[in-house]
Amino acid sequence: MNDSASFVAHARWLIPVEPAGRVLDHHAVVVRDGRILAVLPSAQAREQFADLVQVELPRHALIPGLINAHTHAAMTLLRGLADDLPLMPWLQQHIWPAEQRFVGPQFVRDGSALAAAEMIQAGVTCFSDMYFFGEETAQVAAAAGMRAVIGLIAIDFPSAYAADADDYLRKGIALHDAWRGHVLIRTAFAPHAPYTVSDEPLRRIATFAEELDLPLHIHLHETAHEVAESEARYGMRPLERLAQLGLLSPRLIGVHATQLLAGEIASLAAQGASIVHCPESNMKLASGTCPLPALLAAGVNVAIGTDGAASNNDLDLLGELKTAGLLAKLGAADAAAAPAPALLHMATLGGARALGLDEEIGSLVPGKAADMVALDLSAPHCQPVHDPISQIIYAAGREAVTDVWVAGRRLLHERRLTTLDAAAIVAKTAEWGERIGAADHNQDSG
Ligand SMILES: CSC[C@H]1O[C@@H](n2cnc3c(O)ncnc32)[C@H](O)[C@@H]1O
Ligand SMILES: [Zn+2]
């Protein structure tokens, strides 16, 4: 652990997330060896911990690091490639052909570095990824000092990454073994979706997830078309099929969930499963609306994700929270739906719980890792600060993020990336932009 992992951060407002909705004025977080030792009034901290470096955040709110619970990091290189399409034509006619043509280790490395830079600048300290060549994303995240949960993917069709179901599983387990015990990198099984993974691999994945004690991350009930196709093909809805195959458990992280019956919400709650809400991707692809207020009312653990940059088109998690709040209020015709503290919970403790990391991250309490984000609320568009939590979500946004720490290491220092070379990343991205832009991605255009 480096020296800088021990310090005292003094914030104008400290928002620990636990207990929910609490805002502490003029409080400090004492960090020792990358862990939170204490949270206490600043004046007291200055006396008791005078020997440590004092970090001053006089105009700032200090919150737990944000957790992007569903993304495809390397898809930053496909940002804006195919807008204004619904999910299946978007995937089948544009994204999958482009991936077949371009995705390889270097693509994933460069795209993941771009995503890491964007996410750190937006206050994201941990992301859960689902993409080909996860080893590359793991290396990029670890080198950047970010936490990541790398998806051990499975899909029924061959790719540059793997030939068949056995190959995907073998490579996934090798990836898991290679990173076992790493401080920042974890893994999760990540079968793509019920409509692209057959029964046999899904059954095996459920068994492996139990044996290895890993989460199970899958796109689920993303569109009405997915549900109708499952009914026609299997005689049941996707969630029911997953339940029959042994996937419905506290490990399950279902992403999107725009089509849920009341009984399905009840069984997700009863099983302790988690849902990742991706409102902007759902809106952009016109996939449907995740019933956030009903999920929260039923006690389902809800996290938030951006999805990939090709269907969003950014990795701005605070922006995603604002969208989630506005959409919930409109959809429920209830301005009290999804209050700001509940939204912040989704991006912190809710994400941590979904990923099985809630003992380690998700709130600013003693014992947890010092994953923290400082936001400067002094800009005109953030003034006055009646309610810092509301301000962060509805007025400040990612532009206010000035400093980011993971396990006490400062990855963003007064808006400057410390572990990534932004100029080099942008230059490499421009090269990919030219290569990808020069190609024809529309499978229908002959
Ligand atoms: C097996 S790697 C992940 C796979 O998922 C594709 N993808 C990206 N966004 C979505 C989405 O919203 N729904 C379904 N699939 C998606 C991505 O392009 C990769 O092929
Ligand atoms: Zn996705």
UniProtKB/TrEMBL annotation:
Substrate binds at E99, H192, E222, D307. Zn(2+) binds at H70, H72, H219, D307. One of its GO terms (molecular function) is 5'-methylthioadenosine deaminase activity. Binds 1 zinc ion per subunit. It comes from the Bacteria. Its cofactor is Zn(2+). Pfam families: Amidohydro_1 (PF01979). Signal peptide: none annotated. Its EC number is 3.5.4.28, 3.5.4.31. It is an enzyme of class 3 (hydrolase). Residues 62-410 form the Amidohydrolase-related domain. Keywords: Hydrolase, Metal-binding, Zinc. InterPro entries: Amidohydro-rel, Deaminase_MtaD/DadD, Metal-dep_hydrolase_composite, Metal_Hydrolase, MTA/SAH_deaminase. It catalyses: S-methyl-5'-thioadenosine + H2O + H(+) = S-methyl-5'-thioinosine + NH4(+); S-adenosyl-L-homocysteine + H2O + H(+) = S-inosyl-L-homocysteine + NH4(+). Catalyzes the deamination of 5-methylthioadenosine and S-adenosyl-L-homocysteine into 5-methylthioinosine and S-inosyl-L-homocysteine, respectively. Is also able to deaminate adenosine. Belongs to the metallo-dependent hydrolases superfamily. ATZ/TRZ family. This is 5-methylthioadenosine/S-adenosylhomocysteine deaminase.
